[in-house]
Amino acid sequence: QVQLVESGGGLVQAGGSLRLSCVASGIIFNNYRMGWYRQAPGKQRESVATILRGGISNYADSAKGRFTISRDNAKNSVYLQMNSLKPEDTAVYYCNAWLLGSENNYWGQGTQVTVSS
Most exposed: 1, 31, 32, 59, by fewest CB within 10 Å? Predict the structure, then answer.
């Protein structure tokens, strides 16, 4: 059974920082592209950042320069360090694991991030 368990969300003031964590089980973690997505109320889910096994990462324009994605393959974990947070970053953040080129695409339950102005 595949599980992705996120943690680290919460309420923070604008300009503050949060670090999201996601621990994966039930998959061969090294083989998966890991990512963070978010969904704000009334909006579609969007990609925030993704990272390949070797550490190559990709960011949404809104995240560049403020967010950093990283992974620890030994701990089956992926992280999202979020700095200089803005109210528009408020959303539910989801961890994603995708075996590229396959239908093996899994989601966590989400963690709420709220940034107050």
Answer: 1
The kind and range of the H/E element at 94 are: strand 91-98
Q: Between β-strands 10-13 and 111-116, what pairing exists: parallel, antiparallel or unpaired?
A: parallel
Q: What is the C-alpha to C-alpha distance for residues 36 and 78, in angstroms, rounded to an integer?
A: 9
* Pairwise CA distance, residues 55 & 51, whole Å: 6
Nearest alpha-carbon partner for 105 in 60, 56, 48, 50: 50
Q: What digits encode the pLDDT tens for the residues 13-50? A: 999 999 999 999 999 999 999 999 999 999 999 999 99
Buried b (16+ CB within 10 A) or exposed e, 45-70: eeebbbbeeeeebebeeebeeebbbe
The residue with tokens 């324009």 is: 61
Beta-ladder partners of 31: none
C-alpha 9/C-alpha 50 separation (Å) is: 18
Distance between CA atoms of 54 and 76, rounded to whole angstroms?
14
